Amino acid sequence: MKITILAGSNRKHSTSTQLCHYIQSVLESNDCTVALLDLNELPVPFFSPDVESDDANLQYMKNQLKEADGIVLATPEYHGAPSGVLKNALDHVGFDQFDGKVVLSVCSTGGAVGVSSLQQLQTIVRNVHGINCPEWISIGGEQRLFSPEGEPTNLKTKERVHRTLQYFVQMVSTFRK
Question: In whole angstroms, what is the distance from residue 115 CA to residue 104 CA?
């Protein structure tokens, strides 16, 4: 099973990206092939409906999303919304990448939880005909601490990630074409 993770932060030591790395390790330990696309390291051009871009990073992102059986979208929460970096990347893609695929939304926020950004991501997923995983992962406050090995230091956070990923993988297995 191939999973593509799109880490939507442009902060160097982003906790949402750290969470993506942990999600990647958990998925790989469960025999998934994972492509982690970090938009800080793989920037894509600004979206314009008037311009057909041949940017190599953009083409790579589109191909990885298209080839995926399931997708994880991760974002920090800024002013109650997903990052502009992730939204810009998502504006470049559509049905070809998402139609009929299970999508897990993930957020890291300075507050308690990032519900607003997760709800907005789910709206975007519906509009590109993806299938929203009914579970999501949102970490905030003390839950955003990671060990030097890249694992969440909060036991409940680790348990939540494992439980949610188990559910997500089962859904992807059920719905994949």
Answer: 13
Q: How would you classify the pairing of strands 2-7 and 102-109?
A: unpaired
Confirm if 86 and 8 have CB atoms less than 8 A apart. yes
Sign of CA dihedral 76, 35, 85, 104: negative
Tell me the whole-structure pTM to 2 decimals: 0.96
Closest by Cα among 121, 131, 120 to 171:
131
Q: 55-92: per-residue pLDDT in tens?
A: 999 999 999 999 999 999 999 998 889 999 999 999 99
**Can you spell out the DSSP letters for 36-79?**
EEETTTS--PPP-TT-----HHHHHHHHHHHH-SEEEEEEE-BT
Amino acid identity of 142?
E
C-alpha distances out from residue 163 to 1, 3, 23, 62, Å: 18, 17, 11, 28
State how beta strands 33-38 and 2-7 pair.
parallel
DSSP string covering 89-124, please? HHHT--HHHHTT-EEEEEEEESSS--HHHHHHHHHH
Task: Give tens-digit pLDDT for 134-177.
Answer: 999 999 988 999 999 999 999 999 999 999 999 999 999 999 86
